[in-house]
């Protein structure tokens, strides 16, 4: 057997110019397949880790998925707000340990602006139940204080003390700027790999202040309140977009859902983030399923090429097969020899593919993180990651081995037909 | 195993699958140990078929072939493969060598597939490589060719490498199927001399097949297959 392996390798090496292209296509297919799988895994992970430790997300009654989209991922807009009094009633409920108000709507250079309370810094958790951490500065105190997510600060090059101007809405409307009431950066958060990185955080009072002289989405004409006077007004919000709720006992979650539906006198709902994230993933994950399918097809095309190349060479090798039989090789050994040739090319392709992917990740990870905000684990793999990687590579190898059986079987048949005298 | 008869054929009848005509019908053919036999006949008279039968690649429909006392018809195909690897060396007309192996590795091929040939090659206390080099030297192959790819060699040189391969490990039977027909007359003689000399030294029985009767004088025994084969005598050629 060991000699057959050596023989197969020499034979493959002898045909290296033709086989190198097949090897390359298998390498690229491997890169694609493993790359897509890694990306899928990392995207899913950063997706499901964007919120942790929150038992309920509360908002106006609509679709739970939509509520998650804007409350957690800042995608889309709330069709309806919830009243501040309702939020306060919920936060005073005996089962509630903590709550975080979320008020969305404005933006800054395309980054969403979030009005919230200081509870955000003490109770909001992401990933593996991690709290937010300030890289620089402190949480907001004054009305015009702002705390930046890591990516906002990095992309816009902001430091502490920077003056920033908010834009009303998502920034689609020209000139709808809150230029009269600038904010000042007092803190910058450490990176989290979640939508928090792309968020500008203000106090609810600050959010209220910029909208004092606005009504119905536009400034009141001929009426403006300068920033130094805003404190004379009541800056308690009338409404917020959503509310994150943590319970004292996780088991109370269904009772709390009922309480929100029944005891508050406006149509609200409380959704469990885990369940809804899974639903959301079903939708988002479709695209990735398709991508994975295409990657497998590419891999199959590569293996098909391998089979074609080896099969095509086989007729020219009938004399060689007969020679090997005359020195004592059994037909079964010729099958193994030809199959091993295919397997060795597959193994070579897989190894080159993994090396290529490692190089791509090494150089590409910072770029992907900077441009798409997807935190890739890159080359640092956990035990589970290695296991699933090995599994995937195993599948490719298995597919390659099965494909390689085809030329092997053909060689077996030829050697039985030809015996010692090939009829070519 | 110490049988004095190397090949013993009795009442052999063979026809190719899906063909009605009988290809070979041999009442008797016997080769003694150390004998050098010349088998001749026109193409299509069943020479190659007979060699495949002796080599255990084909199985006769009727009659018996004994190789060193083993009845080939009673053996399974893997056992026949083993028997061939252990006891028979082959030289063919042309393209005998595995193109991607160096000369010396081509010579050593039988030792890779047969433990017996490997042991016998080392019997004189020599290493495998040493034995291969000894044979190549005896067959007049220049030392600087030994590590070259087989395809770098001329046809005559390739045939001598094939002879060295057939003889390594002292097989009891050397089957040569038209090994000289790709060589010119002068080289034919030289090749035959070397081959037979080394076969003698190895103690191998030689069955040499050719359509060229001029070579017969090198051999003690001259066999005309058309006279032995009752089918051909009856006028039916053995077309493969």
Please, could you describe this protein's structure?
- The complex is a heterodimer of chains A (424) and B (240).
- Chain A contains twelve helices and 16 strands.
- Chain A is of the alpha+beta class and 424 residues long.
- Chain A folds into two domains: 2-47 and 280-418, no CATH class; 56-271, no CATH class.
- In chain A, the strands form four sheets. In chain A, strands 1, 3, 4, 7, 8, 9, 10, 11, 15 and 16 form a ten-stranded mixed sheet that branches. A two-stranded antiparallel sheet of chain A has the order 2-14.
- Chain A starts with a helix and ends in a 6-residue tail after the last helix.
- With 240 residues, chain B is α/β, with parallel strands linked by helices.
- Chain B has a single domain, classed as Rossmann fold (3-Layer(aba) Sandwich), CATH 3.40.50.300.
- Chain B is 36% helix and 21% strand.
- Chain B has helices spanning 47-54, 77-87, 103-113, 115-121, 128-138, 155-167, 185-202, 225-228, 230-233; strands at residues 5-14, 24-32, 36-40, 62-67, 70-71, 88-91, 173-177, 205-210, 221-224.
- A five-stranded parallel sheet of chain B has the order 6-7-8-3-9, sandwiched between helices.
- In chain B, helix 3 (103-113) crosses helix 5.
- Chain B starts with a strand and ends in a 7-residue tail after the last helix.
- The mean pLDDT of chain B is 85.
- The interface between A and B is medium-sized, with 24 and 31 residues.
């Amino acid at each position: 057997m060991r000699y057959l392996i050596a023989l197969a390798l020499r034979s493959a090496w002898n045909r290296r110019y033709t086989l190198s292209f097949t090897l390359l296509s298998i390498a690229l297919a491997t890169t694609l397949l493993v790359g897509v799988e890694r990306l899928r895994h990392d995207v899913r992970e950063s997706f499901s880790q964007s919120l942790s430790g929150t038992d309920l997300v509360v908002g106006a009654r609509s679709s739970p998925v939509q509520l998650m989209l804007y409350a957690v991922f800042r995608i889309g807009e709330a069709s309806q707000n919830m009243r501040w009094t309702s939020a306060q009633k919920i936060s005073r409920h005996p089962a509630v340990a903590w709550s975080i108000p979320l008020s969305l709507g404005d933006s800054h250079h395309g980054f969403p602006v979030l009005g919230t309370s200081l509870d955000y810094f003490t109770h909001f958790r992401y990933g593996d139940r991690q709290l937010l951490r300030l890289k620089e500065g402190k949480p907001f105190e004054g009305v015009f204080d702002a705390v930046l997510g890591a990516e906002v600060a990095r992309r816009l090059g902001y430091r502490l003390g920077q003056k920033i101007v908010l834009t009303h809405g998502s920034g689609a409307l020209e000139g709808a700027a809150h230029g009269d009431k600038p904010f000042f950066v007092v803190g910058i958060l450490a990176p989290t790999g979640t939508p928090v990185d792309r968020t500008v955080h203000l106090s609810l009072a600050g959010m209220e202040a910029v909208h004092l002289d606005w009504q119905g989405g536009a400034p009141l004409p001929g009426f403006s309140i300068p920033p130094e006077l805003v404190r004379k007004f009541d800056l308690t919000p009338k409404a917020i977009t959503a509310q994150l709720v943590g319970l004292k006992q996780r088991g109370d979650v269904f009772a709390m859902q009922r309480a929100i539906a029944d005891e508050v006198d406006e149509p609200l709902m409380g959704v469990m983030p885990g369940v809804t994230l899974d639903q959301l993933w079903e939708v988002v994950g479709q695209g990735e399923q398709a991508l994975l399918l295409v990657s497998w097809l590419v891999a199959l095309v590569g293996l098909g090429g391998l089979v074609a190349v080896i099969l095509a060479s086989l007729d020219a090798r009938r004399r060689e097969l007969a020679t090997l039989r005359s020195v004592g090789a059994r037909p079964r050994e010729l099958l193994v020899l030809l199959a091993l040739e295919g397997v060795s090319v597959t193994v070579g392709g897989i190894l080159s593919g993994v090396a290529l992917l490692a190089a791509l990740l090494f150089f590409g990870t910072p770029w992907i993180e900077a441009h798409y905000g997807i935190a890739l684990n890159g080359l640092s793999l956990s035990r589970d990651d290695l296991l699933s990687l090995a599994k995937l590579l195993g599948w490719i190898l298995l597919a390659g081995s099965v494909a390689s059986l085809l030329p092997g079987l053909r060689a077996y048949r030829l050697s039985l037909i030809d015996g010692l005298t090939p009829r070519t | 195993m110490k049988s004095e008869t190397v090949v013993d054929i009795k009442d052999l009848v063979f026809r190719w699958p899906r063909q009605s005509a009988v290809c070979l019908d041999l009442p008797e053919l016997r080769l003694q140990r150390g004998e050098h036999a010349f088998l001749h006949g026109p193409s299509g008279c069943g020479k190659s078929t007979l060699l495949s039968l002796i080599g255990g690649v084909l199985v006769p429909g009727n009659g018996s072939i004994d190789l060193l006392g083993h009845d080939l018809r009673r053996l399974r195909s893997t056992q026949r493969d083993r028997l061939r690897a252990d006891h028979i060396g082959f030289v063919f007309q042309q393209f005998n060598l595995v193109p991607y192996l160096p000369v010396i590795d081509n010579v050593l091929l039988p030792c890779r597939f047969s433990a017996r040939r490997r042991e016998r090659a080392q019997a004189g206390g020599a290493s495998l490589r040493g034995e291969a080099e000894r044979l190549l030297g005896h067959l007049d192959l220049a030392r600087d060719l030994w590590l070259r790819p087989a395809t770098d060699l001329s046809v005559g040189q390739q045939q001598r490498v094939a002879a060295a391969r057939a003889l390594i490990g002292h097989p009891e039977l050397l089957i040569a199927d038209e090994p000289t027909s790709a060589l010119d007359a002068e080289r034919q003689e030289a090749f035959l001399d070397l081959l037979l000399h080394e076969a003698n030294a190895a103690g191998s029985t030689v069955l040499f097949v050719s359509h060229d009767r001029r070579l017969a004088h090198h051999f003690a025994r001259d066999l005309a297959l058309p006279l032995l084969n009752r089918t051909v005598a009856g006028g039916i050629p053995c077309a493969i």
